[in-house]
Design brief:
Elements: H1 13-21, H2 27-41, E1 55-61, E2 70-75, H3 81-87, H4 111-118, E3 124-130, E4 133-139, H5 146-149, E5 152-153, H6 157-160, E6 163-164, H7 168-176, H8 188-197, E7 200-206, H9 218-227, H10 229-237, E8 239-244, E9 247-248, E10 270-273, E11 277-279, E12 285-287, E13 298-303, E14 320-324, E15 329-334, H11 335-338, E16 348-353, H12 373-397, H13 403-420, E17 458-460, E18 468-471, E19 476-477, H14 478-481, E20 485-487, E21 499-502, E22 508-512, E23 515-518, E24 522-531, E25 537-539, E26 543-548, E27 550-556, E28 559-563, E29 567-569, E30 571-576, E31 581-582, E32 585-586, E33 588-591, E34 599-601, E35 606-609, E36 613-621, E37 629-630, E38 635-640, E39 654-657, E40 679-680, H15 683-688, E41 690-693, H16 698-705, H17 711-736, H18 747-775
Parallel strand pairs: 1-8, 14-16, 18-26, 18-32, 28-38, 39-41
Antiparallel strand pairs: 1-2, 2-7, 3-4, 3-7, 4-5, 4-6, 8-9, 10-13, 11-12, 13-16, 14-15, 17-20, 19-23, 21-24, 22-23, 24-25, 24-26, 27-30, 29-35, 30-31, 33-36, 34-35, 36-37, 36-38, 40-41
Helix pairs in contact: 2-4, 2-9, 2-10, 13-17, 17-18
């Protein structure tokens, strides 16, 4: 094909100007670009500023009378005619790497100009003095116009281009005079640098936009500037001071972000070399060194003592992974984007240093790296390392509490849980412990609110005639599996301690209470015993326990969608080492989501949708590294929104204790969660009509820690949780009963309802709770 081209390429001036300037929207972003430019100007191939002279001053002045507000940045580089000429060109790919062979310095030179063009309504300029000459260019004109975006010498060619100067001090004093500051007021190292180098550069603008009554909130502005990704590298390579209304701030010392205190016992930093090749999701590989032409990179992870997401003002903006090359920052991503819903990740942040990201992955605004194969593979690597560190943090935060103290608190909690039932209406359905269709095959659902007896007469168990089949190394709590009940002669339940026994501890033994541990292939009988007075005891029926050595597990279906709060069973067909097959073998279950609360899985394979998301569920027995066997193909489970409103479990709601009580959705002890509230209820808990006193929440952990020295503090906290639970139950009952008749209301309406319940219930409950809070008495 032939073509006769136009004499020159044409762009619509205003359209192009708007396109290249739309990415700067705040003063902190613009000042960060100024700082980046100052850092670049100090490099060896540019102004070659000695390390001892690498300083700058951020200066600002409020509007006063007819004088407009203004913001500027003073550095000691000294912009030359060549510098201001290059500054005048929009979208120049060589703007930052003049005289440099480094690809890492490729930019478009738009950042500082964009800030001056967009976020000031008055004149803006860059003035530089060096080698005895002054050069000055700038912008002036209506906001957003082509005139404003067309630079020119200030005030004109004759007075702004290569103008000889006789005194650097006189020139600097004249430039600083509108700010109410003089050279002698500057930090000592800045004065010394200007004197020795006989050079300075001032970029500034008049009438900044978005100020309240012309006042520059310098404290807030400084904090935001320091948080900016583009500022980070600059502040590491130069010392930044600040002045406002003629006075130095921060006691005249360089600005710096407050240090982040690391997580105890995981101080770090944790440095990981980035492999020369990283895998992609499609199975391919991508080079991280540009096929050996660039140096290897590294990932540096840090920890924080505080939850960075919750500390929204100071730490949340720094809860990021920043990406940089050897010479510049190219953007960042929030940690949650890389590892969503990963427990412990709120305490991790870091930096990727990789030269191969430049220039292909650098975007105009440098807010985040461009998408592409290298960034895709890099993010997978980073996410893996974050998860590893986050797991260690999560484990430390969830350390077990003292067993004896937990036993005492569990006993108190059971008494308080029974006490609160006096203040709740009964729906006459269930015992608050089951809900839905029970735990699994062969399990029953109790009905009615029990009236307790006093003298044990018998022990009831629910089990199939053939007994239990359990995979070796699969631990089970039999009280839940067998629905154990101690009853009196009239069938009323009795609260009594139960001891479990095994006929062959080599096959199966009890390690703690009702926790059965299958040890080897074979059959053993187990039974429960309640001791009575005068050495008498009652014994339950014996239950046959068949321990299988699992050889193969096949899970069906291969994929399943579970609506939120609904349950569905995954069938596990188990083959043992003798070729026997069964779908009624109890196994261990797990899933691979970072957020382990997406689903809750019981020992019979019942999966409850708890949070929206996807995960892969697997089942098996034992450690695969030690001969254990798990299903080769897991089941893909997706928890989807539920178009219906599932009902809660019947009967009185129960308050359970994390770290001690069994989760009815899993049959295992519910672990506390430091990032969940003290009164905790997940979607699956609603299905089973249970609430949790989360001992790993910060306030509960504090009160529990004070329990020995100040038991009244703990009891008061415990009582407050119980009362709040009753209030929440009444709120849920009132609003869910309305069903489709519920109308949208302002929050004030719900707040009024909450206050109404709270006043009525707390007044009723507190009178009877006072003795408990005072000395631990008053409860039975």
């Amino acid at each position: 094909m032939s073509i006769e081209r136009d004499s020159q390429i044409k762009f619509h001036e205003l359209g192009t100007l708007n396109a290249v300037t739309r990415w700067i929207s705040s003063h902190d972003e613009g000042i960060a670009e100024w700082l980046k430019n100052a850092r670049r100007a100090y490099q060896l191939d540019r102004a070659n500023v000695d390390e001892k002279h690498r300083a700058a001053v951020l200066i600002a002045k409020d509007a006063h009378g007819t004088e407009p507000a203004r913001i500027g940045l003073l550095d000691v580089g000294g912009a030359t005619l060549e510098d201001v000429t290059a500054w005048s060109t929009w979208q120049d790919p060589d703007a930052s790497r003049r005289f440099s062979h480094l690809d890492e310095e490729e930019t478009q030179g738009n950042g500082g100009k964009t800030y001056m063009f967009k976020l000031f309504t008055g004149p803006c300029r860059i003035v530089g003095v060096r080698d005895g000459k002054r050069n000055c260019k700038g912008f002036e004109g209506a906001t957003g116009s082509v005139d404003r975006g067309t630079p020119g010498f200030v005030p004109d060619l004759a007075s702004g281009r290569e103008v000889p100067v006789s005194s650097i001090r006189v020139e600097l004093d004249r430039a600083l005079q509108p700010y109410g500051i003089a050279m002698e007021d500057l930090p000592a190292e800045v004065r010394s640098a200007v004197e020795e180098r006989q050079a300075f550069t001032l970029v500034e603008g008049e009438d900044p936009v978005d100020l309240y009554k012309g006042r520059v909130d310098h404290e807030d502005l400084i904090v935001k500037v320091l948080r900016q990704d583009q500022s980070t590298l600059a502040i590491q390579q130069l010392r930044l001071y600040a002045a406002h209304n003629g006075r130095l701030v921060n006691e005249g010392k360089p600005l710096e972000l407050p240090p982040i205190e690391p997580y105890p016992e995981l101080e770090g930093p944790f440095v990981h070399e980035i492999p020369e090749e990283l895998p992609l999701t499609d199975g391919g590989l991508v080079s991280t060194t540009d096929s050996g032409r660039r140096p290897k990179g590294r990932l540096i992870l840090f920890t924080c003592r505080e939850n960075m997401y919750h500390a929204y003002k100071n730490l949340r903006p720094r809860w990021r992974i920043t990406y940089r090359t050897q010479h510049q920052m190219i953007g960042s991503k929030v940690v949650a984007e890389l590892t969503p819903s990963t427990p412990g990740a709120y305490f991790v942040y870091g930096t990727v240093e990789l030269s191969a990201l430049e220039p292909g992955y650098v975007d105009h605004g440098r807010r985040r790296p461009k998408a592409g194969p290298l960034v895709e593979a890099l993010d997978l690597f980073v996410a893996e390392k974050i998860r590893e560190l986050a797991k260690q943090i999560s484990q430390r935060r969830s350390r077990d509490l003292d067993d004896r103290a937990l036993d005492e608190v569990q006993d108190e909690n059971e008494k308080l849980d029974r006490f609160k039932n006096k203040f709740l209406p009964s729906d006459g359905e269930g015992d608050g412990g089951m809900g839905g269709d029970g735990m699994g095959p062969g399990q029953r659902r109790s009905r009615g609110v029990p009236e307790y007896g006093t003298i044990p007469e018998s022990i009831e168990l629910l089990v199939a005639e053939e007994g239990l089949r359990i995979g070796r190394d699969v631990k089970l709590h039999l009280n839940e599996i067998l629905q154990l009940r101690v009853v009196d002669a009239s069938g009323k339940p009795v609260r009594a301690p139960v001891a479990w026994h095994s006929s062959d501890v080599g096959v199966a033994r009890f390690t703690a209470g009702d926790l059965l541990e299958p040890r080897d292939k074979g059959k053993a009988d187990v039974w429960a015993v309640v001791k009575l007075e005068k050495g008498k005891e009652i014994e339950s029926d014996h239950v046959a326990v068949h321990v299988w050595v699992v050889d193969h597990v096949l899970l069906t279906p291969r994929a399943v969608e579970i609506p939120l709060r609904k349950r569905q069973q995954i069938i596990a067909e188990v083959t043992d080492d003798e070729g026997n097959r069964s779908t009624d073998v109890y196994l261990d279950w797990k899933h691979d989501a970072d957020d382990q609360l997406i689903v809750r899985i019981g020992p019979a394979g019942y999966v409850t949708g708890n949070r929206l998301g996807r995960t892969a569920v697997n089942a098996g027995a034992g450690d695969p590294a030690a001969g254990g066997m798990w299903a080769r193909i897991p089941v893909e489970v997706t928890v989807v929104p539920n178009p219906e409103t599932p009902g809660r479990g019947g009967g009185f709601p129960r308050l359970l204790l994390t770290g001690r009580d069994l989760d009815p959705a899993t049959g295992n002890v519910r672990k506390g969660d430091p990032d969940s509230p003290a009164l905790w209820q997940e979607a699956s808990d609603f299905t089973y009509n249970v609430w949790w006193l989360n001992l790993q929440s910060p306030e509960a952990r504090f009160a529990f820690g004070e329990r020995q020295d100040n038991p009244g503090l703990w009891r008061d906290f415990h009582a407050q949780i119980v009362m709040e639970m009753v209030v929440q139950v009444y709120m849920m009952t009132e609003f869910t009963k309305r069903g489709e008749n519920e109308q949208e209301q302002l929050w004030a309406s719900h707040q009024n309802a909450l206050d109404r319940h709270r006043v009525r219930i707390v007044q009723q409950m507190w009178e009877q709770l006072e003795p408990y809070v005072h000395d631990g008495g008053g409860l039975v």
